[in-house]
Structures are given as structure tokens and as C-alpha cells.
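Thread: "does anyone have the structure for this chain?"

Original post by V.I.:
We have the sequence but no experimental structure in hand. Need at least a predicted one for the grant figures.
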Amino acid sequence: MTTDAAEESGAHPRFAEALRELGLADLLPRIRRFPDATRTAAEAAAAIGCELSQICKSLIFAADGVPVLVLMDGASLVDLELVRRELGAGKVTRARVELVRETTGYAIGGVPPFGHRTRTRVLADRSLLDHDVVWAAAGTPYTVFPMDPKTLVAHAGGTLVDVREQHL
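Reply from O.Q.:
Generated one for you, C-alpha cells below.
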């Protein structure tokens, strides 16, 4: 696919290139672009017409200052204590805006699950596997793409974990 075709898909150029490098160029025509931003999982689910839990959020945290990507279903929250334990870290916090952009190359609200500027450790919550298809950001707050969650986690280099908040 040419760069023009990638631009027509609405994908961020870096993400479009990552898809081609991963042999996933066939996903480019399946990327959906929306006129209004879908920065939150709820906005994305409403625009797509899917369940909130079918959205794959790509969230960057800092574990002892080192960026880590957590892939989480859109209906759940990340339990920072579970992430800390999983990583054996002393402290885990939400990453600052600058760290997210520096690490991934994308703005918050458009971070895809792979195709980042730098390689980071990736934790993927098992809840994503509850669906046949999940939707994730395609590098901008206006674009999303569908993918089988097992394939998505594999391309992200993710380790399956249980890190979502449990409500009793």
C-alpha cells in the first residue's frame, strides 16, 4: 500500500508503516476514521457501536521511572498495585504526557498497542481475550482498527496478566 493509501485510511504514518513492517498492511483499509475525537474508550465504543469492553486501551505507566505499556479493556481500570507486583517494581504511576509521547511517538488518546518509537515492556490484561474482536487506536484520537485480541497481544509483544481492578 502506498503512503497515499495509508493517509486515506486515516492511520498515523508511523502506525501505517508499523503495520506494513509487521505484514499487516491488509488492516489499513479496515481502519475507521471518525470526524470527532475518540480519546476515551467510551467515545470510541459509541462511535464504533460496540461494547465498552471491546475497546483496547493502550496505557503508559512509569514503573520505577521506566515506561511500561498496559493493554486493558475499555470497561476496566488498571490496578496499579497488581502492575507493581507483576513487574516487581517499587512504585508504579501514570506516565506524564511528555513520557507517553517520548516513549510511543503518539499523543494520549491515540496510542496504538504497537508501532511505538521505543520498545517497552507490555502487559496485556486477560479480559481482552473475552472478545473475538477488539478495537484499538490507530495512532490518532480519530482512528481505530479491529483485531483479534490474541493477535493484537502477540504483535504488541505482550505478556498476559490479571491487572484490572476487581470490584467486590
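V.I.: this helps a lot. The two ends are 48 Å apart (CA to CA).
O.Q.: and The chain is about 30% helix and 25% strand.
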